[in-house]
Amino acid sequence: MGENLGISMPLVTESIISYEKPQLANINNKEGKTVDFAEDTGKRWWQCSEKESNLLKCRVKDTVQRKEYFTAFYEGKTSDVELGMAISNTIRNAYEEAVSGGWLDKDNEKEFLNKMYCDLTIEAVQLAVSSNISEGRALNQQNAVNVQDSKFVYYNAKFYHSCEKAKEVLRDCLDKFSEELGIENLNKEKYLSEHMKKGDDFNAIWSGSYNNCKMINTEAVPPEEFSFFIKWNMPIAIEMLKSTIMKNVTVCSLME
Fold first, then answer.
1. What is the pTM of this model?
2. Contact at 8 Å (CB) between 215 and 207?
3. Which among 109, 82, 84, 110 has a CA at the least distance from the CA of 98?
């Protein structure tokens, strides 16, 4: 079963990285400790100059709005065109505020846009995984015998493909904006690969989101209609799921 689904379980619990405020919060809960830090220019946030700090604030100020428009896109409430307009506004507003504040000039605008690309890419992926988990949680609550039980694993390929589309829209938005500014050779993909390890990969982030399940090959591209729901030690709930589960979902029961 594990080979067919491309997963292996149980595996060692991995820490989950939170990017609720991109580049500002990297939260590690190991041993009950919580550490917040910024990787902006490789420095802790308190080590940044006033200029660097202000540029960072410009890049992340509309985090709440980003969460809303990415989530709406993943839930199918908005189109890719509307998503593109929202992303373009985010990039433009951040850039214009940085320029008007006197913190951004020609010498550092390329790096600023590359960092914006990293910020938005990470958020796009994190929110796609979050939307996947939320849908799984709703499915779990609908069908669980014990509504408090949270031992489930859910993967829906629609979020993987929506995430890939969101990243494509983001790339197009940044390309158009940099072209408008006359900036050449932005090298945003190279910058992303050098500064982010797994932040731009839906499968890799999903794989670190469940304690007892990990994807063997995170580079695998799932069929668009593929999804599965795994429930631990709940045979009665599984029988319920078989009669009510959405089409194309594979249901598996794993005994502890």
1. 0.74
2. yes
3. 109
